[in-house]
Each structure stands twice: as structure tokens, then as C-alpha cells.
Specification:
Layout (H helix, E strand, L loop, with lengths): L6 H11 L3 H5 L4 H11 L6 E5 L15 E6 L2 H14 L4 E6 L12 E7 L8 H11 E11 L6 H10 L3 H4 L7 H8 L2 E8 L5 E7 L17
The protein binds S-adenosylmethionine (SAM).
């Protein structure tokens, strides 16, 4: 699945995006962010990790009685998230840190829920992202994504395929396949729902199907 993009290129791309990100991708993708937080049905005291938190557009959506950690590879995007946290007085956001979601510094089983909003088609190696999400999530925890996947509409799908060579410049893969994502990560999908205008994106909830071997090793994928 990966890696036609590298982490430095992603950082540069999102440095350019940071100032205009909310204007371009804020309101239009907010229903998906809201759907995912609703779906998480957070309980008081839960520890939530949001990978690729970006400018923190989702942060005000979480309940006040959970603790949220956000990581992102882009300092510029995180600066915007910090500003949002301050502006909204979000005391439940306990940490916003620059970190690679494919190689996280957290201990195993650190979080109750791990979420990736519009990130899976951005990272260089989606399978490493999922492996790390599994590792830091408690064994009975919840792993949940929202993302755009390659459209099944023949015309839209064709346009996305034509745009695919521009993935580096766009900062995401427009032709990112849902089937390959699930197949190559071994995700144990529990639920899938279309979200956003024209059902443009999909929310995907997965069971944390550990075991995987250990940090850095390949996950033991279900069905392989
Ligand atoms: C399309 S934006 C989504 C931002 C936010 N989740 C939202 O809902 O708008 C993708 C984000 O993933 C971040 N990202 C990409 N690769 C990453 C990685 N390996 N580790 C952490 N963050 C990453 C980018 O810097 C960017 O902020």
C-alpha cells in the first residue's frame, strides 16, 4: 500500500496547508469528525489518542470528562491545535505532541480508544500506522477511522485514479482503496458507515485484533 510519499514531504505539505487547512477542510469534513466522536460513545475517565490530530478541528467535540492526547508529524498543524485548545479552554486535551504515528513513543495498551481522522491515506505506510494503533490501544479497546476511500462511482473513481500521481503535492492518496486497507492491515472491521456530503467518506470501526508480535515487527494479521 505504501509508500509513494515520505514523512518529510508530508511535513512540508502540511506546513503549506496549516494556514488554510480549516478553511478548506474544516466545515466540509466536520460531519465525519462528529460521527466518529459520537460513535466512540466515550465514558468518563477514558484515555483517547487521536493520531494526525492536525489543527485540532475535532478537539471541541469530545466530552469534557475524557483525557485526549493528540499527535501529529507537522509542528505547524499542531501549533494551530494548541491555539484552538487555548481559545476553547479545552482542559481535557492533556497533550499535543509532535510524533510519528507509525512509530509512537507510547507504551503498549496506553489508551482506551485510538482514532485516526483523515490520516490513513496520508501516512507513508498505513499498515504500520494500524500496527501502532493496535499496540498502544488496550486489547479490548476501540480503533476507529474516518477517511475518503477510492470511489466506486466510475467517473469519480476515474478522476481519483488520474489524480493519484499528484499524491505528494495533494498530501493524500486520492485513490486509497478500502479493500486493500482492510486486507493489508488485517483490520477486523466491525462497522462501516458512509459520512459527509455525498457519502464522500467512510467511518470504519475495528476491533483491536491483537495479538501482534512486538513493536516494529510485523503484525500477525487475521486471515493470513
Ligand atoms: C488530512 S490531515 C487530517 C487532520 C485532522 N485529523 C482532521 O480531521 O482534519 C492529515 C494529518 O495527518 C498528519 N500526519 C501525516 N502523517 C503522519 C504521521 N506519520 N504521523 C503523525 N501525523 C501524520 C498530517 O501532518 C496532517 O496533520
Amino acid at each position: 500500500m505504501g509508500a509513494d510519499v515520505d514523512i518529510r514531504t508530508i511535513e512540508q505539505t502540511y506546513r503549506r496547508y496549516a494556514r488554510i487547512y480549516d478553511f478548506c477542510f474544516g466545515a466540509v469534513f466536520q460531519p465525519g469528525r462528529k460521527a466518529i466522536v459520537d460513535r466512540m460513545a466515550c465514558s468518563p475517565g477514558e484515555r483517547i489518542l487521536e493520531v494526525g490530530v492536525g489543527t485540532g478541528l475535532s478537539l471541541p467535540l469530545y466530552p469534557e470528562d475524557v483525557s485526549i492526547t493528540g499527535i501529529d508529524i507537522s509542528r505547524d498543524m499542531l501549533d494551530k491545535a494548541e491555539a484552538r485548545k487555548k481559545r476553547w479552554g479545552l482542559n481535557n486535551v492533556i497533550q499535543l505532541t509532535q510524533m510519528d504515528a507509525e512509530d509512537m513513543e507510547f507504551d503498549d495498551d496506553s489508551f482506551d480508544k485510538v482514532v485516526a481522522m483523515y490520516v490513513a491515506s496520508v501516512v507513508p505506510y498505513p499498515e504500520r500506522l494500524v500496527d501502532e494503533m493496535r499496540r498502544v490501544c488496550k486489547p479490548d479497546g476501540q480503533i476507529i477511522f474516518v477517511n475518503h476511500f477510492h470511489s466506486r462511482n466510475p467517473l469519480v473513481g476515474r478522476i481519483e485514479s488520474l489524480l493519484a500521481p499528484l499524491s505528494k503535492q495533494l498530501g493524500f492518496r486520492p485513490d486509497f482503496s478500502l479493500e486493500r486497507f482492510i486486507g493489508e492491515t488485517g483490520l477486523d472491521a466491525m462497522a462501516m458507515h458512509p459520512v459527509n456530503l455525498f457519502n464522500f467518506c467512510t467511518m470504519l470501526e475495528a476491533r483491536n485484533n491483537k495479538p501482534f508480535s512486538s513493536r516494529g515487527d510485523l503484525p500477525i494479521l487475521a486471515g493470513r
